[in-house]
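It is worth pausing here to work through a concrete case rather than discussing structure prediction in the abstract. The textbook approach is simple: state the sequence, then state the predicted structure, then interpret. We follow exactly that order.
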Amino acid sequence: MRAYNIRKKGIRWYLAVLALPILISSCSKDNEVVTTSNDYCYIKSVMLGTVKRKVGTISSSFTGSFYEMTVDLRNNTIENLDSLPYGSLLDRVIATITFDGSMLAYREKGSDNEWTAYNLTDSLDLTKPLELLLTSNDNRTSRIYTLKVNVHQQEGDSLCWNKCESEVTQLADMTDMKTVAFNDKLLVLGRKTAGIVLAERSSTEAESTWEETSVTDLPATTDLQTLHQQADMLYISTTDGAIFSSANAIDWRQEGTKSAELTLVEKTEDFFYAISEGKLLRSADASTWEEETLDTEASLLPQTGIRTLTLQQANGNTRIVMVGQREGSSNAVVWNKMWNDSEPEANAEWIYFPLSPDNKIPCPRLNHFNLLPYDGKCFAFGGASVDESHEALDVIYISQDYGITWRPTNEIHLPSELKGIEGCITSTVDENNFIWIITNAQVWRGRLNRLGFAQR
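Step two, the predicted structure:
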Protein backbone atom coordinates (compact mmCIF):
# COMPACT_ATOMS: atom_id res chain seq x y z
CA MET A 1 0.00 0.00 0.00
CA ARG A 2 1.47 3.45 -1.00
CA ALA A 3 0.27 6.72 0.56
CA TYR A 4 0.18 9.89 -1.52
CA ASN A 5 0.46 13.39 -0.05
CA ILE A 6 -0.75 16.43 -1.92
CA ARG A 7 2.60 17.30 -3.50
CA LYS A 8 3.17 13.82 -4.95
CA LYS A 9 -0.11 13.84 -6.80
CA GLY A 10 0.61 17.00 -8.77
CA ILE A 11 -1.54 19.96 -9.66
CA ARG A 12 -4.68 17.99 -10.54
CA TRP A 13 -4.84 16.25 -7.17
CA TYR A 14 -3.84 19.45 -5.37
CA LEU A 15 -6.70 21.45 -6.84
CA ALA A 16 -9.20 18.78 -5.93
CA VAL A 17 -8.06 18.51 -2.32
CA LEU A 18 -7.62 22.26 -1.89
CA ALA A 19 -11.26 22.74 -2.85
CA LEU A 20 -12.57 20.14 -0.35
CA PRO A 21 -13.72 22.57 2.41
CA ILE A 22 -16.01 24.22 -0.10
CA LEU A 23 -16.90 21.44 -2.50
CA ILE A 24 -17.55 18.32 -0.35
CA SER A 25 -21.25 17.81 -0.74
CA SER A 26 -23.79 15.63 -2.42
CA CYS A 27 -23.00 15.59 -6.09
CA SER A 28 -26.54 16.48 -7.00
CA LYS A 29 -28.66 18.91 -5.03
CA ASP A 30 -31.94 20.43 -6.08
CA ASN A 31 -30.59 24.00 -5.78
CA GLU A 32 -27.16 23.28 -7.25
CA VAL A 33 -26.27 25.11 -10.47
CA VAL A 34 -24.67 22.68 -12.88
CA THR A 35 -21.93 24.34 -14.91
CA THR A 36 -20.61 21.24 -16.61
CA SER A 37 -21.96 18.18 -18.37
CA ASN A 38 -19.43 15.86 -16.74
CA ASP A 39 -19.93 16.30 -12.98
CA TYR A 40 -20.64 12.63 -12.15
CA CYS A 41 -19.18 11.14 -8.99
CA TYR A 42 -20.81 8.02 -7.60
CA ILE A 43 -19.68 4.55 -6.63
CA LYS A 44 -21.34 1.86 -8.71
CA SER A 45 -20.24 -1.27 -6.86
CA VAL A 46 -17.81 -2.72 -4.33
CA MET A 47 -16.72 -6.36 -4.46
CA LEU A 48 -14.49 -8.04 -1.90
CA GLY A 49 -11.73 -10.37 -3.02
CA THR A 50 -10.41 -13.41 -1.15
CA VAL A 51 -10.87 -13.14 2.64
CA LYS A 52 -8.79 -15.14 5.07
CA ARG A 53 -10.44 -16.73 8.09
CA LYS A 54 -9.16 -18.21 11.33
CA VAL A 55 -11.23 -20.05 13.94
CA GLY A 56 -9.19 -21.44 16.78
CA THR A 57 -6.15 -23.06 15.19
CA ILE A 58 -7.81 -23.66 11.82
CA SER A 59 -7.04 -21.21 9.01
CA SER A 60 -8.96 -21.02 5.73
CA SER A 61 -10.18 -18.53 3.14
CA PHE A 62 -13.33 -17.81 1.17
CA THR A 63 -14.49 -15.73 -1.79
CA GLY A 64 -15.61 -12.35 -0.50
CA SER A 65 -17.66 -11.60 -3.61
CA PHE A 66 -20.25 -14.10 -2.35
CA TYR A 67 -21.22 -11.42 0.20
CA GLU A 68 -22.83 -8.53 -1.66
CA MET A 69 -21.83 -5.00 -0.69
CA THR A 70 -24.87 -2.71 -0.89
CA VAL A 71 -24.27 0.86 -2.08
CA ASP A 72 -26.76 3.33 -0.63
CA LEU A 73 -26.52 6.44 -2.83
CA ARG A 74 -28.97 8.39 -0.69
CA ASN A 75 -27.06 7.99 2.58
CA ASN A 76 -23.62 7.53 1.02
CA THR A 77 -22.99 4.23 2.80
CA ILE A 78 -21.62 0.89 1.62
CA GLU A 79 -21.94 -2.29 3.68
CA ASN A 80 -22.78 -5.99 3.47
CA LEU A 81 -26.21 -6.90 4.82
CA ASP A 82 -25.19 -10.57 5.03
CA SER A 83 -22.33 -10.56 7.52
CA LEU A 84 -19.06 -12.34 6.77
CA PRO A 85 -18.36 -15.55 8.73
CA TYR A 86 -17.01 -15.41 12.25
CA GLY A 87 -13.22 -15.23 12.32
CA SER A 88 -12.87 -13.33 9.02
CA LEU A 89 -9.59 -11.41 8.88
CA LEU A 90 -10.06 -7.96 7.39
CA ASP A 91 -6.66 -6.35 7.88
CA ARG A 92 -5.56 -7.03 4.27
CA VAL A 93 -8.41 -7.37 1.77
CA ILE A 94 -8.39 -6.42 -1.90
CA ALA A 95 -11.62 -4.65 -2.87
CA THR A 96 -12.69 -3.93 -6.43
CA ILE A 97 -14.45 -0.54 -6.41
CA THR A 98 -16.19 0.55 -9.59
CA PHE A 99 -17.04 4.25 -9.80
CA ASP A 100 -17.83 7.13 -12.10
CA GLY A 101 -15.53 10.04 -11.30
CA SER A 102 -11.97 11.18 -11.73
CA MET A 103 -10.25 10.12 -8.48
CA LEU A 104 -10.97 7.94 -5.44
CA ALA A 105 -9.12 8.10 -2.13
CA TYR A 106 -9.67 6.61 1.33
CA ARG A 107 -8.76 6.90 4.99
CA GLU A 108 -10.00 5.56 8.32
CA LYS A 109 -13.36 7.06 9.20
CA GLY A 110 -13.15 9.82 11.79
CA SER A 111 -9.38 10.22 11.51
CA ASP A 112 -7.30 13.20 10.37
CA ASN A 113 -4.98 11.01 8.33
CA GLU A 114 -3.95 12.01 4.84
CA TRP A 115 -6.04 10.58 2.03
CA THR A 116 -4.57 7.59 0.22
CA ALA A 117 -5.22 7.21 -3.48
CA TYR A 118 -7.20 4.04 -4.25
CA ASN A 119 -5.36 1.44 -6.29
CA LEU A 120 -7.08 -1.72 -7.51
CA THR A 121 -4.10 -3.87 -6.50
CA ASP A 122 -3.74 -2.45 -2.99
CA SER A 123 -5.08 -4.37 -0.01
CA LEU A 124 -7.26 -2.39 2.39
CA ASP A 125 -7.51 -2.54 6.15
CA LEU A 126 -11.23 -3.03 6.64
CA THR A 127 -11.15 -3.82 10.35
CA LYS A 128 -12.61 -0.33 10.89
CA PRO A 129 -14.95 1.69 8.66
CA LEU A 130 -13.31 3.71 5.90
CA GLU A 131 -14.19 7.02 4.33
CA LEU A 132 -14.08 6.99 0.54
CA LEU A 133 -13.56 10.38 -1.15
CA LEU A 134 -14.69 10.43 -4.77
CA THR A 135 -14.05 13.47 -6.98
CA SER A 136 -16.22 14.19 -10.01
CA ASN A 137 -14.97 14.00 -13.54
CA ASP A 138 -14.77 17.79 -13.80
CA ASN A 139 -13.00 18.09 -10.42
CA ARG A 140 -15.60 20.57 -9.21
CA THR A 141 -17.53 18.45 -6.75
CA SER A 142 -16.94 15.39 -4.59
CA ARG A 143 -18.71 12.92 -2.37
CA ILE A 144 -17.66 11.01 0.76
CA TYR A 145 -18.95 7.47 1.35
CA THR A 146 -18.62 5.33 4.48
CA LEU A 147 -17.47 1.77 3.76
CA LYS A 148 -18.17 -0.78 6.52
CA VAL A 149 -17.72 -4.56 6.41
CA ASN A 150 -19.86 -6.52 8.87
CA VAL A 151 -18.58 -9.78 10.41
CA HIS A 152 -20.50 -12.21 12.62
CA GLN A 153 -19.23 -11.98 16.19
CA GLN A 154 -20.14 -15.59 16.98
CA GLU A 155 -19.24 -18.86 15.32
CA GLY A 156 -22.31 -19.70 13.25
CA ASP A 157 -21.97 -23.47 13.59
CA SER A 158 -21.50 -23.45 17.35
CA LEU A 159 -24.41 -24.69 19.44
CA CYS A 160 -24.37 -22.63 22.63
CA TRP A 161 -26.26 -23.97 25.66
CA ASN A 162 -27.75 -22.26 28.67
CA LYS A 163 -29.09 -24.02 31.74
CA CYS A 164 -32.36 -22.18 32.30
CA GLU A 165 -33.44 -24.04 35.42
CA SER A 166 -32.42 -26.88 37.69
CA GLU A 167 -34.41 -28.80 40.30
CA VAL A 168 -37.73 -27.66 38.85
CA THR A 169 -40.31 -28.85 41.36
CA GLN A 170 -42.98 -29.46 38.72
CA LEU A 171 -40.58 -31.76 36.81
CA ALA A 172 -39.21 -33.63 39.81
CA ASP A 173 -40.13 -37.34 39.92
CA MET A 174 -41.89 -37.06 36.54
CA THR A 175 -41.48 -40.08 34.27
CA ASP A 176 -42.43 -40.93 30.70
CA MET A 177 -42.09 -37.26 29.71
CA LYS A 178 -42.92 -35.81 26.30
CA THR A 179 -42.61 -32.10 25.51
CA VAL A 180 -43.73 -29.67 22.81
CA ALA A 181 -43.22 -25.96 22.21
CA PHE A 182 -46.81 -24.77 21.91
CA ASN A 183 -48.17 -21.21 21.61
CA ASP A 184 -44.94 -19.68 22.95
CA LYS A 185 -45.01 -22.02 25.94
CA LEU A 186 -43.23 -25.22 26.86
CA LEU A 187 -45.60 -28.10 27.68
CA VAL A 188 -44.40 -31.30 29.31
CA LEU A 189 -46.77 -34.23 29.75
CA GLY A 190 -45.63 -36.91 32.15
CA ARG A 191 -46.62 -39.30 34.90
CA LYS A 192 -46.44 -38.98 38.64
CA THR A 193 -47.90 -41.16 41.35
CA ALA A 194 -51.16 -39.17 41.12
CA GLY A 195 -51.50 -39.87 37.40
CA ILE A 196 -50.89 -37.86 34.22
CA VAL A 197 -49.76 -34.28 34.85
CA LEU A 198 -48.91 -31.27 32.74
CA ALA A 199 -45.91 -29.13 33.64
CA GLU A 200 -46.31 -25.82 31.82
CA ARG A 201 -43.55 -23.24 31.38
CA SER A 202 -45.11 -19.83 30.88
CA SER A 203 -42.85 -18.84 27.96
CA THR A 204 -39.95 -19.97 25.80
CA GLU A 205 -37.81 -17.05 26.95
CA ALA A 206 -34.62 -17.71 28.89
CA GLU A 207 -36.36 -16.98 32.20
CA SER A 208 -39.86 -18.09 33.05
CA THR A 209 -42.08 -19.82 35.62
CA TRP A 210 -43.62 -23.30 35.88
CA GLU A 211 -47.07 -24.54 36.85
CA GLU A 212 -48.37 -28.08 37.33
CA THR A 213 -51.86 -29.30 36.46
CA SER A 214 -53.44 -32.72 36.75
CA VAL A 215 -54.81 -34.01 33.44
CA THR A 216 -58.01 -35.90 34.14
CA ASP A 217 -59.41 -36.15 30.59
CA LEU A 218 -56.83 -38.72 29.48
CA PRO A 219 -57.21 -42.39 30.51
CA ALA A 220 -54.47 -44.33 32.24
CA THR A 221 -53.85 -46.24 28.98
CA THR A 222 -52.56 -43.09 27.26
CA ASP A 223 -49.21 -43.54 25.55
CA LEU A 224 -47.57 -40.18 26.26
CA GLN A 225 -44.81 -40.78 23.73
CA THR A 226 -47.39 -40.56 20.93
CA LEU A 227 -47.96 -36.85 21.61
CA HIS A 228 -47.92 -34.95 18.30
CA GLN A 229 -48.55 -31.36 17.32
CA GLN A 230 -50.29 -30.25 14.15
CA ALA A 231 -50.87 -26.51 13.71
CA ASP A 232 -52.66 -25.30 16.85
CA MET A 233 -53.81 -28.74 18.04
CA LEU A 234 -52.26 -31.60 20.01
CA TYR A 235 -52.97 -35.30 19.41
CA ILE A 236 -52.23 -38.42 21.43
CA SER A 237 -53.29 -42.09 21.42
CA THR A 238 -53.99 -44.81 23.94
CA THR A 239 -52.81 -48.39 23.87
CA ASP A 240 -56.39 -49.61 23.43
CA GLY A 241 -57.05 -47.72 20.19
CA ALA A 242 -58.40 -44.26 21.04
CA ILE A 243 -57.07 -40.94 19.76
CA PHE A 244 -57.56 -37.70 21.67
CA SER A 245 -57.07 -34.05 20.70
CA SER A 246 -56.58 -30.86 22.69
CA ALA A 247 -55.97 -27.15 22.19
CA ASN A 248 -54.26 -26.65 25.56
CA ALA A 249 -52.96 -30.08 26.75
CA ILE A 250 -55.43 -30.02 29.69
CA ASP A 251 -58.85 -30.46 28.12
CA TRP A 252 -58.97 -33.47 25.78
CA ARG A 253 -61.70 -34.98 23.63
CA GLN A 254 -61.76 -38.22 21.68
CA GLU A 255 -61.35 -38.13 17.90
CA GLY A 256 -63.36 -40.57 15.81
CA THR A 257 -64.03 -44.00 17.27
CA LYS A 258 -61.89 -46.42 19.23
CA SER A 259 -60.45 -49.16 17.04
CA ALA A 260 -58.04 -52.02 17.57
CA GLU A 261 -54.80 -51.56 19.45
CA LEU A 262 -52.83 -48.82 17.71
CA THR A 263 -49.93 -46.41 18.11
CA LEU A 264 -50.30 -42.92 16.64
CA VAL A 265 -47.06 -42.22 14.78
CA GLU A 266 -47.80 -38.91 13.00
CA LYS A 267 -50.49 -36.34 12.32
CA THR A 268 -50.34 -34.25 9.16
CA GLU A 269 -52.81 -31.61 8.04
CA ASP A 270 -54.94 -34.23 6.27
CA PHE A 271 -54.27 -37.60 7.89
CA PHE A 272 -53.60 -39.59 11.03
CA TYR A 273 -50.92 -42.30 10.71
CA ALA A 274 -50.80 -45.26 13.09
CA ILE A 275 -49.23 -48.68 13.43
CA SER A 276 -51.68 -51.39 14.42
CA GLU A 277 -51.14 -55.14 14.55
CA GLY A 278 -47.98 -54.88 12.47
CA LYS A 279 -49.56 -52.71 9.76
CA LEU A 280 -49.12 -49.02 8.91
CA LEU A 281 -52.53 -47.35 8.60
CA ARG A 282 -53.89 -43.98 7.49
CA SER A 283 -57.15 -42.24 8.39
CA ALA A 284 -58.73 -38.87 7.66
CA ASP A 285 -61.11 -38.97 10.64
CA ALA A 286 -59.62 -41.44 13.16
CA SER A 287 -62.58 -43.73 12.49
CA THR A 288 -62.07 -45.32 9.10
CA TRP A 289 -58.56 -46.65 8.54
CA GLU A 290 -56.91 -48.01 5.41
CA GLU A 291 -53.59 -49.78 5.01
CA GLU A 292 -50.71 -47.71 3.65
CA THR A 293 -48.64 -48.77 0.62
CA LEU A 294 -45.15 -49.97 1.54
CA ASP A 295 -42.23 -50.66 -0.78
CA THR A 296 -41.31 -53.80 1.17
CA GLU A 297 -42.63 -56.19 3.83
CA ALA A 298 -44.56 -54.78 6.78
CA SER A 299 -42.47 -57.07 8.99
CA LEU A 300 -39.72 -54.41 8.80
CA LEU A 301 -41.86 -51.70 10.37
CA PRO A 302 -40.67 -50.45 13.78
CA GLN A 303 -42.27 -52.02 16.84
CA THR A 304 -41.30 -49.76 19.75
CA GLY A 305 -39.72 -46.40 20.45
CA ILE A 306 -41.26 -44.89 17.31
CA ARG A 307 -40.38 -41.25 16.62
CA THR A 308 -41.35 -39.21 13.56
CA LEU A 309 -40.87 -35.75 12.14
CA THR A 310 -42.29 -33.97 9.11
CA LEU A 311 -40.03 -31.75 7.01
CA GLN A 312 -40.76 -29.20 4.31
CA GLN A 313 -37.98 -29.51 1.75
CA ALA A 314 -36.60 -26.60 -0.25
CA ASN A 315 -37.79 -28.19 -3.50
CA GLY A 316 -41.42 -28.16 -2.32
CA ASN A 317 -41.60 -31.80 -1.21
CA THR A 318 -43.05 -32.78 2.15
CA ARG A 319 -41.40 -35.74 3.87
CA ILE A 320 -42.12 -37.83 6.96
CA VAL A 321 -39.11 -39.49 8.58
CA MET A 322 -40.03 -42.39 10.89
CA VAL A 323 -37.45 -44.02 13.16
CA GLY A 324 -38.04 -46.87 15.59
CA GLN A 325 -36.75 -50.10 17.02
CA ARG A 326 -37.22 -53.77 16.22
CA GLU A 327 -36.19 -56.66 18.41
CA GLY A 328 -33.14 -58.42 17.03
CA SER A 329 -31.85 -55.36 15.15
CA SER A 330 -28.63 -53.79 16.39
CA ASN A 331 -29.63 -50.43 14.90
CA ALA A 332 -32.82 -48.41 14.54
CA VAL A 333 -35.01 -48.89 11.48
CA VAL A 334 -35.89 -45.91 9.27
CA TRP A 335 -38.81 -45.29 6.90
CA ASN A 336 -39.73 -42.29 4.73
CA LYS A 337 -42.82 -41.02 2.99
CA MET A 338 -42.59 -38.11 0.54
CA TRP A 339 -45.21 -36.28 -1.52
CA ASN A 340 -45.62 -33.14 -3.63
CA ASP A 341 -48.05 -31.49 -6.04
CA SER A 342 -47.59 -34.17 -8.66
CA GLU A 343 -47.93 -37.07 -6.20
CA PRO A 344 -50.49 -36.36 -3.45
CA GLU A 345 -50.01 -37.54 0.09
CA ALA A 346 -52.68 -40.25 -0.16
CA ASN A 347 -50.89 -41.91 -3.12
CA ALA A 348 -47.29 -41.72 -1.89
CA GLU A 349 -45.82 -44.98 -0.61
CA TRP A 350 -43.55 -45.53 2.35
CA ILE A 351 -39.89 -46.31 1.59
CA TYR A 352 -37.76 -48.50 3.83
CA PHE A 353 -34.08 -47.59 4.21
CA PRO A 354 -32.33 -50.97 4.48
CA LEU A 355 -29.31 -51.44 6.72
CA SER A 356 -26.75 -52.11 3.99
CA PRO A 357 -23.30 -53.50 4.91
CA ASP A 358 -21.53 -50.49 3.37
CA ASN A 359 -23.41 -48.03 5.61
CA LYS A 360 -20.96 -47.54 8.46
CA ILE A 361 -23.05 -44.90 10.26
CA PRO A 362 -26.66 -46.16 10.61
CA CYS A 363 -29.05 -44.78 13.18
CA PRO A 364 -28.18 -46.21 16.62
CA ARG A 365 -30.67 -47.74 19.03
CA LEU A 366 -30.81 -45.37 21.98
CA ASN A 367 -32.92 -45.47 25.11
CA HIS A 368 -35.16 -42.40 25.41
CA PHE A 369 -34.58 -41.71 21.71
CA ASN A 370 -35.14 -38.07 20.68
CA LEU A 371 -35.66 -37.05 17.05
CA LEU A 372 -35.80 -33.39 16.03
CA PRO A 373 -36.03 -31.42 12.78
CA TYR A 374 -33.27 -28.81 12.95
CA ASP A 375 -31.38 -26.67 10.47
CA GLY A 376 -32.99 -28.58 7.60
CA LYS A 377 -31.60 -31.86 8.93
CA CYS A 378 -32.57 -34.67 11.30
CA PHE A 379 -31.00 -34.44 14.77
CA ALA A 380 -31.03 -37.43 17.11
CA PHE A 381 -29.74 -38.03 20.63
CA GLY A 382 -30.87 -39.80 23.76
CA GLY A 383 -29.93 -42.09 26.59
CA ALA A 384 -27.35 -44.85 26.57
CA SER A 385 -27.27 -47.05 23.48
CA VAL A 386 -28.86 -50.48 23.69
CA ASP A 387 -25.50 -52.12 22.98
CA GLU A 388 -23.88 -49.99 25.74
CA SER A 389 -21.34 -48.53 23.31
CA HIS A 390 -22.48 -44.96 24.04
CA GLU A 391 -23.30 -43.07 27.22
CA ALA A 392 -26.44 -41.02 27.56
CA LEU A 393 -26.34 -37.62 25.85
CA ASP A 394 -22.74 -38.03 24.74
CA VAL A 395 -23.20 -36.94 21.12
CA ILE A 396 -25.66 -35.59 18.53
CA TYR A 397 -26.30 -37.74 15.47
CA ILE A 398 -27.08 -35.76 12.31
CA SER A 399 -28.68 -37.09 9.14
CA GLN A 400 -28.60 -34.92 6.02
CA ASP A 401 -30.12 -37.62 3.79
CA TYR A 402 -33.38 -37.99 5.73
CA GLY A 403 -32.37 -41.02 7.71
CA ILE A 404 -30.03 -43.15 5.62
CA THR A 405 -26.83 -42.19 7.43
CA TRP A 406 -26.42 -40.72 10.92
CA ARG A 407 -23.08 -39.08 11.53
CA PRO A 408 -22.04 -38.38 15.14
CA THR A 409 -20.85 -34.78 15.02
CA ASN A 410 -17.77 -33.46 16.78
CA GLU A 411 -18.56 -29.84 15.90
CA ILE A 412 -21.92 -29.50 17.65
CA HIS A 413 -22.00 -30.59 21.27
CA LEU A 414 -24.63 -31.34 23.87
CA PRO A 415 -24.22 -29.80 27.34
CA SER A 416 -21.21 -31.58 28.85
CA GLU A 417 -22.90 -31.55 32.26
CA LEU A 418 -25.58 -33.92 30.94
CA LYS A 419 -23.24 -36.61 29.64
CA GLY A 420 -24.02 -39.97 31.20
CA ILE A 421 -27.11 -38.73 33.04
CA GLU A 422 -29.73 -41.31 33.99
CA GLY A 423 -33.46 -40.98 33.52
CA CYS A 424 -36.05 -39.86 31.00
CA ILE A 425 -34.94 -37.36 28.33
CA THR A 426 -37.34 -35.21 26.32
CA SER A 427 -36.76 -32.36 23.88
CA THR A 428 -38.35 -30.03 21.36
CA VAL A 429 -37.57 -27.09 19.07
CA ASP A 430 -39.35 -23.74 19.39
CA GLU A 431 -40.16 -21.21 16.68
CA ASN A 432 -36.98 -19.25 17.44
CA ASN A 433 -34.79 -22.27 16.62
CA PHE A 434 -33.93 -23.05 20.24
CA ILE A 435 -33.52 -26.71 21.17
CA TRP A 436 -34.92 -27.52 24.60
CA ILE A 437 -33.69 -30.53 26.59
CA ILE A 438 -35.45 -31.55 29.80
CA THR A 439 -34.09 -34.29 32.02
CA ASN A 440 -33.53 -34.91 35.72
CA ALA A 441 -35.59 -31.76 36.56
CA GLN A 442 -33.13 -29.65 34.56
CA VAL A 443 -34.07 -27.38 31.64
CA TRP A 444 -31.51 -26.54 28.97
CA ARG A 445 -31.87 -24.27 25.95
CA GLY A 446 -29.45 -24.06 23.01
CA ARG A 447 -29.29 -22.74 19.47
CA LEU A 448 -26.89 -22.69 16.56
CA ASN A 449 -25.52 -19.16 16.56
CA ARG A 450 -26.19 -18.51 12.90
CA LEU A 451 -29.88 -19.42 13.30
CA GLY A 452 -30.18 -16.54 15.72
CA PHE A 453 -28.44 -13.94 13.58
CA ALA A 454 -30.72 -11.01 12.81
CA GLN A 455 -32.04 -10.92 9.26
CA ARG A 456 -31.59 -7.45 7.80
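Step three, interpretation. The radius of gyration is 30 Å. The chain has two domains: 6-148, 159-452.
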